[in-house]
Structure formats: C-alpha cells, structure tokens
Amino acid sequence: MKITTVRRISQLFFFALFVWFCIVATVGEKFWQIRNWPINWILQLDPLVALGTILSTGKFYWPLHCALGMVIVTIIFGRFFCGWVCPFGSIHHFVGYLGNRSKKVSDKIQLNKYRKAQSLKYLILVFLLAMAAFPSLASSLQTGLLDPIPLVTRSFNLVLLPVLDRGTNLTSVAARFYELGWLTLTVFAAAVLLNLVIPRFYCRFLCPLGAFFGIISRFSIWRIGKTKSECIDCKLCEKSCEGGCEPSGNIKIAECVLCFNCRDDCKHNLIAYQTVPSLAGETPADVSRRGFCLSLAGGVLAVPAVRLSGKLASNWESSLIRPPGALEEREFLKRCIKCGQCMRICPTNVIQPAGIEAGLEGLWTPTLNNRIGSSGCQLNCVACGQVCSTSAIRPITLDEKKGEGDFADKGPVKLGTAFIDRNRCLPWSLDKPCIVCQENCPVSPKAIYTRESFSTVRDGVALVKSITGSTILIDRRIIPGKFGTGDYYVLFENGARRKIAANADDSIGLSVSDEKTPLITGKIEIQVCLQRPYIDIEKCIGCGVCEHECPVSGLRAIRVSAEGETRSKNRRLLLR
Amino acid sequence: MADQNQTNFGRRQLLARGVKAAASIAAAGSIAYWLYDRNGPNGDVETRANLQQLPDLAVPRKNGQTLSIVQGSDRTKTVNKAIDLLGGIERFISPGDVVVIKPNVAFASPAFLGATAHPDVVAAVIRLCYDRGRAKKVIVTDNPINDPASCFAISGIGKAATLAGADVVMPKDNLFSNITLDGGVLIKDYPVFTAPLEDANKLIGIGPVKDHHRSAASMSMKNWYGLLGGRRNIFHQDINTIIAELSMLVKPTFVLLDGTTTMMTNGPTGGSVSDLKKTNTMIASADMVAADAFGCSLLNRKPADLPYLALAEKAGAGTADYESLKPLRAEVT
Q1: Fewer CB atoms inside 10 Å of the end CB: C or N, chain A?
Q2: CA dihedral in degrees (A78, A54, A319, A407; nearest 10)?
Q3: Taking all residues of chain A, what is their mean pLDDT, rounded to a whole number?
Q4: What ipTM describes this predicted complex?
Q5: Pairing verdict, β A471-474 and A558-561
Q6: Which residues of chain B does A444 touch, with a Cβ-Cβ cutoff of 8 Å?
C-alpha cells in the first residue's frame, strides 16, 4: 500500500474519531452517548494546550500528559500531526484538494510554492505564548483563539452539530442554543474557504500549533528530503505539496507536514523519508529576530493593555456567571482554552460562550445564561468540571458543589446571588400571586422564602348591604367569578378576614372559617393574598433556576448576579 | 455568441428568442398569480393541532371501588394491593391496550429525596400492565421542569421504565399541539404534550405527596401540569384555576398517589431527607379529587386549605368528600 494511502486512512480515522467524540458528548446511557468515551483525548494530545498552561501556571496538569507523547513522537518523526492526525488539517487538506483539483499542473506548482508570509504563524505563536508566559506581569491564555484543536472542537460542538441536528435532535432532547454562533461560524468558514485561495492556508500562514510542531521538528530524526542534490527540476514534487515547503530545492523543513505527496509524485524516486537532511539543502523555521522581538513585546504588553478596561478590577462584569468549580477569574483566564466542551456537555445548555463582556480575553469562555436552556445550573450535576481538560473549571464532586460530606464546613459552591427586581416581580409590583422562583429553588431549606401580605385590589372598596349566612351582598358591581380563585379575601371593618369562595356580580360567597370574629355590614375591602419573595443570601447558590423559570419572560424579575460567587473573595457580600 | 451577432441575426433566431421571452413572461406571470395574496397577513400565529381535545380514558365507575388506601412501606406491595382492591389491573387495562403512564418527573433529583414519583411504583405499574393487563405497549412520559434527560436519569425513572419494557418519551417541540379546553379560561390555544396520548387507550398518573407553597400541596392533580408546554409558569398567577382546568382536560384511567414518604416542607423540590416524613400510605383512585382530598391529610392539611379541590369538584372532576366513596383500606407488611 502506498504511504499516501496510509496517510489518508489515518486522516479519515482521526477525523471520524473527532466527529464521534463530538456526537457522544450527549447525556445518556446508550453506547453512542457519554458513558466513558474519552471525548477530550484529541484536545489532550494538543501540545499547545499543555505548553500554554505550563507557561501560564508553571505546572503540567496531568490529563495533558498525552501531549508529551505527541512532542516526543514529533521530535522523532517530524510534523506528522498536521498531515496525519489533525482533524482541522484534514478538513483543509480535503477542501484544498477539492477546490484546486482541476487546475493545471503548473498552476498547482505555483499555488504550493513557499511564501515568505508563512513565517507569520511563528509570530502568532510567539505572540500568544508571550501573553501567557509572564504571570508576574499579567498572564492570559489566548492560544485557544487560533489553536486548531479547540477551534475545530468549538466550531463543531457549538455550530455545526446543533445546526445539523436541528431536525433530528439526536444529540440532545431539545434543540440546543449557543450564543455567538455567527462569530464561531465566521471564523471556521473563513479558515475553510481560504483553502480555495491557497491550499492549507490556515496551516501554512496562521496555525500556532503547526508553528510549534514546525519548530520542534527541526531536531526530528527522520525527515523528507532529496537523495540527490541535482535533478531535472520538473517540480512535480510540488504539485500536491501540502505544507508549501519546496521539496524540489532547499526544503523549508519546518513547513513540511509529512503528507508524502512529493515522494509519491517524484517520477525518479529522488525523494525519501530519511535520517540525512535533503542533499539539496534544508532551512529551518524562518523567524526573523525583529519579528520575534516585536511579537514577544506585543504579547507581553497586550495583556496589561486589554486589562486597562478594569474588567479584572473594579469594573468586573456582574452578569458573567462562571460554571460551578471555575477558578478565580485571573487563574481561570490562565487555563481556559475556549474549546467549548463544557458548553457541549452541559445537560441544560445553560453554559454559553461569552462575547466580550468578560473583556476581550474572555471571548468564547464559558458563562451562564439562564434564559437559554432547560433549567439553569442543575443542583445534582458537575459535568462541566469533569470534562474540562485544563481544570479552568475544577472537577469538583457533587459533595463539594452542595457543601455536603467532607465539605460541610465549607458550604456549597455559589455561582453568584439571585436578586429580585421588585419593579418587575408580579407579587411585588403587579399584585399578582406567583412565587414560581420559590417553588423551583432547589436548595433545602429554600433560599427564596416568602412573606404573606394582603393588598387591596384596585377599586376593591365596597359597602355590605346585607349578610345571609356566608354570602354578602355589596353595593357595587364586580366581575362574576373573578375573585373565587382561592387567592382573594374580604376584609371587614372589625378586622375579620375571610377567603372568597365564589362571587357573582353583586354578591360574594365566603369560605367557611373557624374564625370567631362576626361578619358585619359596612365598608369592606377585597384583598388579594400575596406571597412576596425574599432572598436568603446565606442559602442562595446562584444556580439560576429561579431566573430561568421566572414567568416575566423578557428581562426576568429575578436575576443572578456574580456577587457572592465562591471563587472570588473580593466579590463577596456576606460578612460571615 | 456568434449567432447573436447583429450581422447574421436572422428570422429563426428572432423567433427562438421570442418564444423564450414569451415563456419567461408566462412563467413570471404564473408564479405571481399562484402566490398572489390579496389580503396580506391576518396577524394570527399558525399552530398545529393534532388533537383537538385529550381523549377521555376513564373506565366505567364501580360503586365502592373508586378509592383504595393501603398502608405499608414496600411500594411494590402497596401498589399491587391498592390496585387489586379497586378490582385489579384487569378492570382498567384490556389486552392490547396502549397505556401512557405520566409519573411526576419534574426535578433532576434522586428518588430518595421524594421530589419525583418513585421508580419502584412506575416499574410495578408497568409490570402489572404487561403481565396481567396484557397491554400492547406502555409509554412513560413527562415534560419536566428541570432538564428532561437529567430528570429521567437522576430520578431513576428512565432506567426503571426501560428495564420494565416501557418506552420513554421525552418532550420535544413537535410532540406538542395547541389545545383549547371547552369551558376553560386559561387553557386556550395552549401547547399540550399530546403526542404520547394520540394512540393511547389508557392513562395512569403517578405522583408523590408534596408540600407546595403556592397551591398548598402537589399531588395527583398538580401532576398534570407536566403535560403543559410553553411558558406554563404564567399560570401560577391563578394556580387553583389551572389545576381545576387540568382536571377537566385530563381524564385518566386511574391515579396513584404515593404517600410512602410525604414531603412535609420545602416542596415541591425538597432537597433534603429532613423534608420528608414516613407516612407509609399508597392511594389508588379513579377519582383524583378524592385522592388529593385524602392525600392532604398526610400533610396535616384540610381540603379547605386547597382551594383547587373545590374548584375541581365544581367542574365535575370528582368529589372532595372522599369518605362518601367508602374507601377500601388495607395494610400490607
């Protein structure tokens, strides 16, 4: 079998595996649902995830150990990840092939020539790593913006899958919603469509992971190269060169993605995968000193510049509710790779990609939107932390989340605090009974409690003309049946208050009561019994079920705000 | 094109072009005529209506066999006994029936916290339907408050139902249709979870006895809230009327009200075993009003504390005077 066929099989295999992991990240017990599928495995293979978090945190978080294996294999065999494994690379490979397959050979050779601008990706890599690498200044992990594995993961999970699954709902009970889909899709589509201009445009010019592999492949033991320095210079080897590395001459070895097309296309068998460098010479990654220094300086300065917004200081965003177990914001931003796995796995769909409300560096990081999804952050669920590759959201247990067992003295993990907007709340501002928020509050005892109050309805004052048994005749007209719902009462002048059982247009039937105070004629008030909600700040965990369920469906009358979140000490409200 | 060149543009070409032009004009005209809308939009929102009303799935009444109350802590035993007292499952389920079971699966909460129907009860009823009732198919369904998949998984009802051989139907948008209740004021052109009921011959409700701050208690009638779709929480403004209307809308074969443990406080979500009390009572009833009227005694409440009972009684859904039905009582150990 030809080596290029083996490569195609490998690409197909890893692409299928990637798609499979996207599909099985579905709550359920069937074989194609979550069970124990290692849905993060491809993310964990990504050395840029590991390197980024190492630079920002100074530690090598254990689930990322596969990345070390990938580095070792790359040092031995070269930048094969891009040509053999990367699902995003395989998409580019395929689309580039489709878009350019009918071009003339000479045009293809032109398309695949090396371009100076390919060194841009090294500058992007340096810039992104510099943003993370100086924790003592300000460190922000932004590799996820362009790192192909998180990028393709979020594009599939947050856009392609929910769109393709709209009719069938195979991967969720209800249709999924994700904010920012337009941006996620635009970035993905742009990266894919650029292949029509130049094949593997993203890999050649932009990909920071490719740049990283390019740099470390400098020391690889095996590499592509010519077995003779001279040849007839037909350049057929560059007809389908995926990396744009010019194998016909002085090969740009860092650009080579080991597609092996050159070896296949050379009619004279002058190209081999060998331990000696190409006899026509080879050049390592082209990074100018000036470019390197500028990118480094730019990256170092970019983070403090972005943070001038004060989003990590007093101007923090109170609507940014991080998932349960999320680290304190600075630590969180050192780890989140914007892959969207937490948003995919969240059974209620409440975790959403943030726009720039968390500051520019918070783009695509997880935030809770209680108006989306099926029910806020569910009490008995810790899925997001379990699935986070970098522990930006810690893998907490249910006990820790609920403050039970070993965590009883720490109390539950709070995401924020619910606040009632009394200007919008039905019992508070519109004299309507409701307390849906109280009903749905999942903690015990409930964080939402009520105080009963009686409010005289509009035009609710009348005179009693006569009393027969428990029926009173009044001097004015009321709408028949309006007050017989169990929520309305009549208050007499002597203080007696009786529940209304039914009413006609001029009479009111009162419920039987044990109350001793007699009913008297004279002035009465028709009152509605309101249970008005209050928040017990000590009990509220900020789960947002109340906000989700609030019947005031536009701007909710109860909303979670990040004050009081466990992860940050300086946003607390409680004294003790 | 060369033949469109003016110099050799002949009669033939002119004719051909004329025919094409005429065809294009005719096509444009036909499409315009076909789609022509003289009136403009009328402002109505189009809704589906697969079922206009929910079917009446009650079986004929038998005096003295309407309500049974069984004491005991083993749910499987009390369920079997309670149904036997009413004449056995054979009275309710006929061979070949499609049975829909609507347990209360409202919350993503484990069974021992009592916020949902108990999986043992669901499993026992499914087995009775299949083994002795010789039902063709049993469907278990609910439109929970919390995330549906999580609710069915965490409550254990999904697994219990599947193991006992029932189909679990989760709520999806296309399974709801808009219904207007005759004589209703709240359920008007409102989405109801009708699809599971379309081929059903029998309907069984299963709910626990729970405290509820707004309606005083959540029992077998409040359980039907789970058939409503949309933003159903708006009905909490008039909770008693909506529960009464649900009792007019839904005509079940019978209901099981599970008071093995009663959620005395912090309902309907509970969240702690300290909210529960062992009351060791299972109620089976072909009259939901009577079942709830008795059930509230487990919460130490009186029927008068539950205004929806009087409203439902007035609407003809049953009687709150459960003693008049001469409830059948038994104890199993």
Answers
A1: C
A2: 130
A3: 94
A4: 0.88
A5: unpaired
A6: 266, 269-272, 274-275
Whether A574 contacts chain B with CB within 8 A: no
A98, A415, B158 from A381: Cα distances, Å: 44, 14, 17
Q: Are strands A351-353 and A522-535 parallel, antiparallel or unpaired?
A: unpaired
How much of chain A exceeds pLDDT 90, in percent?
Answer: 85
Q: What is the mean pLDDT of residues B208-215?
A: 95
CB contact under 8 A, A380 and B154: yes
Phi/psi of residue A57, nearest 5 degrees: -115, -15
Measured in angstroms, the CA of A26 and the nearest CA of chain B are apart by 10
Q: Quick: pLDDT tens for B272-301.
A: 999 999 999 999 999 999 999 999 999 999
Neighbours of A300 (CB within 10 A): 18
Specify the 3-state DSSP secondary structure of A228. Answer: coil
User: Which of A35, A172, A173, A345 to substitute to test the interface with B, most B CBs within 10 Å?
Assistant: A173
- The minimum CA-CA distance between A123 and chain B, rounded to whole Å, is 45
Instruction: Identify the segments of chain A with pLDDT beneath 50.
Output: none
d(CA A19, CA A165): 13
φ and ψ at residue A529, rounded to 5 degrees: -85, 120
Residue type, A102: S
* A383 in Cβ contact with A401 (< 8 Å): no
Question: Could you state, in order of their start, the residue ranges of all structural domains in chain B?
Answer: 2-35, 67-331
Going by CATH, does the domain composed of A329-416 fall within 3.20.20? no
CATH class of domain segment(s) B67-331: alpha beta
Instruction: Give the H or E element holding residue B98.
Output: strand B98-103
Contact A433 B268 (CB under 8 A): no
How far apart, in Å, do the first and last CA atoms of chain B sit? 97
Question: Cβ–Cβ of B150/A29 closer than 8 Å?
Answer: no
Within 8 A by CB and 6+ apart from A573, the residues are A417, A537, A563, A564
Domain ranges of chain A: 3-283, 329-416, 448-533
